[in-house]
């Protein structure tokens, strides 16, 4: 908690899924949350929901693959609030064509631009303010695929999510001396809208057994609530009924 009592969190990919759940959980914990994403209507709905629950929220339309747009968004948040205490990098995509047999370079490049470059752009954008504060928490949403290689997510997704894990640890190596800390959150299957992009969409029964967005929202809030001397370097989390263990993947 800052001396003024105000804490500000910026959540990318905040219009749905894990980002939305993280924004709601952080707002419930007293953060002023700024959600960003490419769909203004989805962001507005999240903001309205948080405000209806008594939280403080606002939205900034953003494509994280544009470094200039990311810098402008960070500057806008800092101009309005004077600080950024927590960054949640939740923006991410996958594509239907995800095997070596049918992958396309356009799909590879989109995943690298959003899943990896976008994370880096946002981390760099908040770095000066967090260094000046001598305090700041970054939560990078990677994936079970960032730790374990399997066929289903595809080479592009798996590669970018592994890279996010390395990026997170390298950040902690350099920035711990400035009081900053980052966590790589690696969830296995989560029942979010991105599942609709899979070549084979999981059944409703299987999705009910997966991690739910609220599970990740609570996890994000837990990491963000740790005192400044605590760095949760990584979290690998899965549903108890894990399809990669029981032969469903």
TrEMBL record:
InterPro entries for this protein: NAD(P)-bd_dom_sf, SDR_fam
Listed name of the protein: NADP-dependent 3-hydroxy acid dehydrogenase YdfG
PANTHER family the record matches: DEHYDROGENASE/REDUCTASE SDR FAMILY MEMBER 11, DEHYDROGENASE_REDUCTASE SDR FAMILY MEMBER 11
Source organism, top-level taxon: Bacteria
GO molecular function: oxidoreductase activity
Alphabetical list of Gene3D superfamilies matching this protein: NAD(P)-binding Rossmann-like Domain
Protein family according to the UniProt entry: Belongs to the short-chain dehydrogenases/reductases (SDR) family.
Protein keywords: Oxidoreductase
A Pfam family recorded for this sequence: adh_short
